[in-house]
């Protein structure tokens, strides 16, 4: 931490942090990170294209999946530039305005993804609990309203963060904990009173990740209750099988965040490289794993992918 004796508001420079102790190997470390980012963009882009082009994938579950893919692409676009800036070019400096903008988009797309996962949990609940009314409840109009509400919530919850940061004093140069900007990191570097910022950040998390995770647990509790009421074991298994993809994606989204939180509370200073690795993985893993999970588990997506691939081969020959 640099001295607060020469602190400024809105004109500070932030230094990105890579992997402590591996500075000389940053170029090689960047290779797997780059591959993950490239495959994440390709995978989610293909999912989006398939759902847009194939009429068979216009069902509510796949429309929500397209929203999930869009949020993953947004998250990649928010984190990828500073990773490349640091690992490939060796540039660490980031001005306050760029840092605040990146912070806003990272948190916004994270909240969007969390909201979409909740919407997908509701989709599975309606499909199992009210199968006869599924099409009338989850209409295209209703899904558009849900998507708009998720986006508006993400913007409103994150808008105060960058605005309130501008009133804080920071050292002329501050060292970040990661290779991107996060709200808790910036607040921790401030030289002035941060109580309001911390409170706003806490409220933002509670009304997004906290609320969403609680409602997802409630949805699956009701789903399990409904499934246990089905007489046939075969039908029970069939109903639960429709939830496997979503459950995997939920675990992929929340477990790295939980692991990072535990690591920070245990002793992140004892394992700085591990803390940075976990911090990067909790943003990189969901975007690359979500398309893989749905391609493996969804027969319709596999069929659509195969159909378009065969169609392209016929066109080429």
Question: Topology, please?
Answer:
Layout: E1 7-8, E2 13-15, H1 26-53, H2 60-87, E3 93-95, H3 96-129, H4 134-137, H5 140-158, H6 160-165, E4 170-171, E5 173-175, H7 183-189, H8 195-228, H9 233-241, H10 244-267, H11 272-297, H12 299-316
Parallel strand pairs: 2-5
Antiparallel strand pairs: 1-4, 2-3
How would you describe what is shown here?
One of its GO terms (molecular function) is olfactory receptor activity. This protein is mainly α. The chain has one domain (13-307): Rhopdopsin 7-helix transmembrane proteins. Helix content is 75%, strand content 4%. It has helices spanning 26-53, 60-87, 96-129, 134-137, 140-158, 160-165, 183-189, 195-228, 233-241, 244-267, 272-297, 299-316; strands at residues 7-8, 13-15, 93-95, 170-171, 173-175.
Largest sheet: 3 strands, mixed
CATH topology: Rhopdopsin 7-helix transmembrane proteins
Given the structure, what is the number of helices?
12
Order of strands in the sheet with most strands: 3-2-5
Straight-line distance between termini: 62 Å
Shape: globular
- Helix and strand sequence: EEHHEHHHHEEHHHHHH
- Please, how many domains? 1
The radius of gyration computed from the alpha-carbon positions, rounded to a whole number of angstroms, is 22 Å
Q: Would you state the CATH class?
A: Mainly Alpha
CATH homologous superfamily classification: Rhodopsin 7-helix transmembrane proteins
Instruction: Let me know the number of strands.
Output: 5
Task: Provide the low-confidence segments as ranges.
Answer: none
Task: Output mean pLDDT.
Answer: 87
The percentage of residues in β strands lies in under 5%
The protein's oligomeric status is single chain
Residue share in helices? over 70%
CATH architecture annotation name? Up-down Bundle
Structural class: mainly alpha
Membrane topology: Multi-pass membrane protein
Keywords: Cell membrane, G-protein coupled receptor, Membrane, Olfaction, Receptor, Sensory transduction, Transducer, Transmembrane, Transmembrane helix
Domain G-protein coupled receptors family 1 profile: 43-294
Main location: membrane
